[in-house]
Amino acid sequence: MKKVIIIGGGAAGFFTAINAKEMNPSLEISILEKGKEVLHKVRISGGGRCNVTHACFEPRELAKFYPRGEKELLGPFHQFMTGDTFEWFENNGIPLKTEKDKRVFPESNSSQSIIDCFLGKTRDLGIPVLKNHGVNAIKKQEKSWLVATKEKQFVCDAVVMAAGSSRKVWDLSKSLGHTIISPVPSLFTFNIKDDRIKDLSGISISNATIKLIDTNLEALGPLLITHWGLSGPAILKLSAFGARVLAAKNYEYQVQINWLSQPADEILDTLLNLKNKQPKKQVIVHSPFKEIPKRLWERFVLASHIHVGNNWADLSHIQIDNLTRQLTKAVYTAKGKSTFKEEFVTAGGVDLKEINFKTFESKLQNNLFFIGEILNIDAVTGGFNFQNAWTGGWLCAKGLARL
């Protein structure tokens, strides 16, 4: 009987263990978790609802959501994809639903459904889940592996590293010859102090374009003003794709925002047209853009050196040009970052060049596997990091089943 130790009591570890055992019931599999709780990220994901995956069903399109891992995941996505995730959970009693933004959740709207499913499956399959078993050492023996925790030593035929962005497990991976790409935060909001957005927390724009100045990085999507600056899907996407660039800048940088995602000349024409058609209307009260909330419009008007009492007829070409820039080319200075809720994601981990993505096995050590966030793979928010866990877990399980 072949023995497998899975290090990490998270989504990737549980999914791998369950599927490997179902593919090969003769395997003896144990999950080791360093803490008192398993599946913590599942519990908090999606505000406690668990954002299981994203409704993108074409492998090449799905891979584009991964700033690190796009090329490597393309092949695996052809083997286990979003549709397979739907089928797996529904076959295990967890029907899923797709929301307007294409995020996918359990119909129960509770992450507990996923947790109960995983815990129930491991119990039924006889897979022990050993808590408070932080791994202190991993050693390759002649034909087996020795995994040592404070509580016990395990001898096994294969080891699966599924402990997420754990520095301790990264260090263990280095001791086995693997290269670790230094970690930096990936999903975070932008800390911006600027009078134009001060005290406007909660105001959102449905479709803004944000550019990171002095780079070719930009993102399009919803934008949210917060107490500390800017957040929302567009900001989080930019933070993910710009993770290493922003770290190199020590999180002091400038962003340019087109609040309407329209060309500046079109916005200028709209403003000039309003000046001609409604010259006696007050600028601060009458905006031609329904997309811009009233309080935010007022800030743009004042920032353009337009007085509260000015009518459209009073505006000079310079003032109209200023207003056009505030709407389409406004520059904001960011200093620092804030973690996105509790769903902390890191760019960094085991070098992807050292992994065989047909099975997620190490190219350096036989029967050593890496799955999930321990790898230098990360994605934008929206269920993509979980899809990486399911895809890697499935292919790893197939590799383990052949032991």
Count structural domains. Answer: 2
Beta-strand level of the residues, as a percent range? Answer: 15-25%
Number of strands: 21
Q: Please give the CATH class of the largest domain.
A: Alpha Beta
CATH architecture assignment of the largest domain = 3-Layer(bba) Sandwich
Query: Please, what is the average pLDDT?
Result: 96
Helix/strand-derived class? Answer: alpha+beta
Residue stretches low in confidence (pLDDT < 50, at least 5 long) are: none
What form results from the Cα inertia axes? elongated
Helicity level, as a percent range?
Answer: 25-40%
Strand order of the largest sheet: 12-15-14-13-16-17
By DSSP (H or I, 4+ residues per run), the number of helices equals: 13
CATH superfamily of the largest domain: FAD/NAD(P)-binding domain
Q: What name is given to the CATH topology of the largest domain?
A: FAD/NAD(P)-binding domain
What does this structure look like?
The structure is a single chain. The longest helix has 18 residues, at 384-401. This protein has 403 residues and is α+β, with helices and mostly antiparallel strands. The model has no long low-confidence stretch (mean pLDDT 96). The protein has two domains: 3-184 and 342-401, FAD/NAD(P)-binding domain (3-Layer(bba) Sandwich), CATH 3.50.50.60; 188-339, no CATH class. The radius of gyration is 25 Å and the shape is elongated. Helix 1 packs parallel to helix 6, helix 4 (70-79) crosses helix 13 and helix 10 packs across helix 12. The chain has 13 helices and 21 strands. The strands form six sheets. It has a six-stranded antiparallel β-barrel with strand order 12-15-14-13-16-17. The chain has helices at 11-23, 40-48, 59-63, 70-79, 82-91, 111-124, 167-175, 233-241, 243-248, 264-277, 294-303, 317-328, 384-401; strands at residues 3-7, 28-32, 53-54, 96-98, 103-106, 129-130, 135-140, 145-149, 153-156, 158-161, 180-185, 188-192, 204-212, 218-225, 229-231, 252-258, 330-339, 346-350, 355-356, 361-362, 368-370.
